């Protein structure tokens, strides 16, 4: 690969990454044999990162606890809730509607998922 082409591809990849930094990939959906996007929200220093994401209905979100204390992910009206996640643990769910959520252990921690 020549250098100008390699630089162009790098710029494209960096731009794509900035636009969807929470999007880590696609997973095969065995029910539809289509691919479903998988978004990632990390929990770092008592905050959800990113705190707001936009997804399509049926896409998945994985929460990963990168913090040193336990956290959970609780929908505002408790429509859904993860188990408490220790350091390094993750929880994945399929998003069907927009939701505001928080950590029930530390209620100041808040996040938002918007289904477009
Ligand atoms: Cu917490």
TrEMBL record:
It comes from the Bacteria. Gene3D superfamilies: Cupredoxins - blue copper proteins. The keyword Transcription regulation does not apply. Pfam families: Copper-bind. Keywords: Copper, Metal-binding. Residues 41-116 form the Blue (type 1) copper domain. This is Plastocyanin. The lineage of its organism: Bacteria, Pseudomonadati, Bacteroidota, Cytophagia, Cytophagales.
